[in-house]
Amino acid sequence: MRVPRPLLPFVLLVLAPVAGAGEKEKPLFTEEFTDKLADGWTWVREDPKGWRLEKGTLVVRTSAGGLWMKDNNGGNILLRTPPKVQNGKLAVEVLVDIEPTNQYENAGLIWYYDDDNYVIMVKEKIGKDVSMQFVAEKDAKLKAGSHKKFEGKSVWVRMEVEGDKITGRYRASPKEDWVTVGQCGLPVRGEAKVGLSTAYAARDAMHFTRFSNFRMLQVKE
User: Fold this and answer.
1) pLDDT of 15 above 90
2) DSSP 8-state assignment for residue 95
3) What are phi and psi of 15, to 5 degrees?
4) How many angstroms separate the CA atoms of 2 and 15, rounded?
5) Which architecture, in CATH terms, is 17-220?
6) What are phi and psi of 23, to 5 degrees?
């Protein structure tokens, strides 16, 4: 039986918008999600019938499993090796469309070492609310967590990695500033991968998450 995810009461950073006007961003990788996935992607526990490409969108059946503590049964986690950034920071972002109804149902970005060492920045059902949730695990134990209520449907999700720190952010549209949800040290355990994950849909539900506009950038302040 899964240990319930607690309602994380603490916030790691002040939840304030982060302006991006002065940043210089250089695209390093873009996934178009057209006829086929670009070379370099790998799946964790792939269900080939549980995903498809559709007009520039990756449509994934939201997994009934997850990675919370000892679960380690989340399916169709899509990963690739992030590029090295020597000057500035690496940003990874994607547009996520999910309407979670099950407790802890979520989808978004994952920075992944293995099933017990990872960071997620996701849209998630927590209690009666839907929130943007930043969670990190180290050796299958909670390392960091914070959340901010979010009422929209589609949301831009972003992770930024600089040195040994990772930050989770979101925004409702490209016209808005990024809002910081949390930051922590990287739970390093071997080689990092980054990509997309879904989790904790009801087992009999046919829920689908739509991902689009995935890209990785070098960001210079």
Assistant:
1) no
2) E
3) -85, 85
4) 30
5) Sandwich (2.60)
6) -85, 145
